[in-house]
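[Primary structure, fold]
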Amino acid sequence: APLTGIIETLRPKAAEVRGLGPCSAVLAVRGAYVPLIDIGVALGQRLYPIDPTQGVVLLVESEVGGRAALVADEIQGQRQVVIKSLEANFQRVAGIAAATILGDGRVALILDIETIIEKHEQREPLPLAKAC
């Protein structure tokens, strides 16, 4: 995710997570509840959300939907990178804003947090999402 959209990262405690059915939850952050969005589910990489207390949460600010808590398996680090348009060089992929090539040749995708949050709020899955 672009660093400009990330407010903080945290590892939530079970008491801070409130389930809203099998596929929805919110996180209590300083007296407010923000929606928890599992990135793997949103991008179609898994069927059901992981336990947020077992992953890492990125508290993000969106122009469209305010704050949200994106759940990831782990953070592997942060880098300054040259961003390449995925749409111009490949095709449009919902939930992905751009890509970059890392120093070791691997491709890293840059999340489109605006689209992920917007689709979550509208209860519309991204095209690749399979279940929740």
Remarks:
- Residues 116 and 122 are 10 Å apart (CA to CA).
- The chain has three helices and eight strands.
